[in-house]
Amino acid sequence: MSQKNTIIAIFIVFVVALLLSEGEPKKLAHWDYSEDKGPKEWANLDERYNMCGEGKNQSPINITDSIDAELLPLRLKGESKAETFVNNGHSVQVNFNNGSYINISDKKYSLKQIHFHTPSENQIKGKSYPMEAHLVHTDSYDNIAVIAVMFEEGNNDNLTLNKLLRNLPEKYEDEIITENVKSIVTGYEILPENRDYYLYNGSLTTPPCNEGVKWFVLKNAVKISKSQLDDFTKVMPKNNRPIQEINARTILH
């Protein structure tokens, strides 16, 4: 091969490698709840997290004043079973197969996963709870709706949460698949019987903090024993985002 052809070949290889590298999506920056990479710094860690600092409809919030809008009851359908239990380093997450869903304005939002925060992220009239669960749903266009339920300390074990605790992945990146679960967990059984709720428009409470999330915050808390709460906090010592400004939003009940 002539020197000229060699130079051309090297140039082509260089250009192809450059194009391939530019085509690869840049990995999202690591975030957590520490001082250096926690909520105050999220917007500075990655330009794709800018909504964490610039958004005007962020979550969580302190639910204080709300307007009586005679909201329709939550229409919960199906009994999908947990597929995997995962410790993703930010929370304990339970992933579900298709089957459970809610109808919102005649649109179907399927339950995808439940994860937990200790202590609670949202507050109700200034009250923070020891733990909060988020039941994350999406529609066919990937719009998100979250049912949030609070947990408060009681005298007895919560039998449903015992099922979760039997499968609790204690270490980061631990994953327990359906075939190995020790108890069957279905989607909506952790919710209280009374499902009255507050409704507001908010965001994801973790990066990238995207807005446009419909939040259904249940008014009634679920009881959990101190020992159960201790088991959760051993795995998730503190993973809650601070309260965000309500700004011009309206909260309905």
Automatic annotation (TrEMBL):
A GO molecular-function annotation: zinc ion binding
Role description: Reversible hydration of carbon dioxide.
This protein's name: Carbonic anhydrase
InterPro entries: Alpha_CA_prokaryot-like (IPR041891), CA_dom (IPR001148), CA_dom_sf (IPR036398), Carbonic_anhydrase_a-class (IPR023561), Carbonic_anhydrase_a-class_CS (IPR018338)
EC number: 4.2.1.1
Necessary cofactors: Zn(2+)
Domain of life: Bacteria
Recorded catalytic activity of this chain's protein: hydrogencarbonate + H(+) = CO2 + H2O
Family: Belongs to the alpha-carbonic anhydrase family.
Gene assigned in the entry: cah
Organism the protein comes from: Malaciobacter pacificus
PROSITE patterns (UniProt xref): ALPHA_CA_1 (PS00162), ALPHA_CA_2 (PS51144)
SMART domains: Carb_anhydrase
Pfam families: Carb_anhydrase (PF00194)
Lineage: Bacteria, Pseudomonadati, Campylobacterota, Epsilonproteobacteria, Campylobacterales
Keywords: Lyase, Metal-binding, Zinc
